[in-house]
Specification:
The chain is about 65% helix and about 10% strand. By secondary structure, the chain is of the alpha+beta class. Strands 1, 2, 3 and 4 form a 4-stranded antiparallel beta sheet that branches.
């Protein structure tokens, strides 16, 4: 029992020793030409760094001809960076003769961008297709254009540079401006390359993480006759305004007519009221002696003669 216990203790001690002192990893690094001491590997483990990730990154970079420092890789690992992806990006950039150092690659990675994808895009440009862009030429015809934008990553602008959404927005704005300045939609359909040339010369990639290589108009469709639609809408609006004004004038005429009728009725009422006062006035004149009987008969004769003349005139 004592022998088995001693063997078990020795095995446990060896496991603990190999865990604290990764001899196999140190030996592998030594054979690959990477000089990392056992003490460094132990300190990496104590600092919360995975020594296997650092050693493999050093081996990969060294075999590719890069000069990497373990301290820089450790710092990037502790900063929650992707050490393996950064090293792969440095190797790809070195093989493609793209100027990229570790500090720039680490900054791009910590900024949240995929540095390896950016390097690959610098080597193999990417094609971005814009959504349908609607614009109206000066003759009022609507055109719907779709463009393909070929871009490659601008390594120096990846930190703080605008993304694909800005490129698409600027290209769409340029297409709208170019079509809107055209005298006729037919000219645009005949020479769609004028749009791409005009837009490309505006320097739309300024301040972005990309460099625009080309802008190609993939498709142009004719939409509505916006000018005719606007004229029809204006005509409808003018008609409605004219109808409203005519209705206003009619209402004012009706009101004036009603007012005139009311005034005429009021006048007739006053005449009737005045005529009703005539007999009373005549009676008062008889009593006061201001009117004689012969005067009364002469007045009646005049009234009868007037009524007869009016009757004859009407016939």
């Amino acid at each position: 029992m004592d022998i088995y216990l001693i063997i078990a203790i020795i095995i446990i001690a060896l496991i603990i020793l190999l865990w604290f002192f990764p001899v196999a990893l140190w030996f592998q690094a030594l054979l690959s030409g990477v000089h990392v001491s056992l003490v460094q590997l132990v300190l990496m483990r104590w600092r919360g760094v995975n020594p296997r990730t650092i050693v493999y990154a050093l081996i990969t970079g060294t075999k590719a001809g890069l000069k990497l420092k373990a301290n820089e890789l450790e710092a990037h690992y502790l900063a929650k960076g992707h050490v393996t992806k950064v090293v792969q990006a440095l190797i790809s950039a070195n093989k493609a003769n793209i100027p990229l150092d570790f500090q720039m690659a680490a900054a791009i990675d910590l900024a949240g961008r995929d540095v390896l994808d950016a390097v690959q895009m610098s080597v193999n440009p990417k094609v971005i297709t814009t959504p349908p862009v609607t614009a109206v030429a000066k003759d009022g015809i609507q055109l719907i254009a779709t463009a393909r934008v070929t871009v490659r990553a601008n390594i120096k602008q990846l930190v703080g540079g605008a993304g694909e959404e800005t490129i698409l927005a600027r290209v769409g704005e340029g297409i709208v401006s170019s079509i809107g300045s055209s005298e006729s939609h037919k000219a645009v359909l005949e020479n769609p390359d004028t749009i791409s040339k005009t837009v490309l010369n505006k320097g739309l990639d300024a301040g972005t993480a990309f460099e625009i290589l080309s802008i190609d108009i993939a498709d142009i469709d004719v939409g509505k006759n916006i000018g005719a639609v606007l004229q029809m809408d204006q005509a409808d609006a003018d008609k409605n305004i004219a109808q409203a004004r005519a209705e206003e004038r009619r209402a004012m005429a009706v009101a004036q007519e009603q007012e005139m009728k009311a005034k005429a009725q009021e006048a007739r009422a006053k005449v009737i009221e005045a005529e009703a006062q005539v007999p009373l006035a005549m009676a008062q004149a008889f009593r006061e002696g201001n009117l004689g009987i012969m005067d009364y008969y002469r007045m009646k004769n005049i009234q009868s003669d007037t009524e007869m003349r009016e009757s004859i005139a009407k016939d």
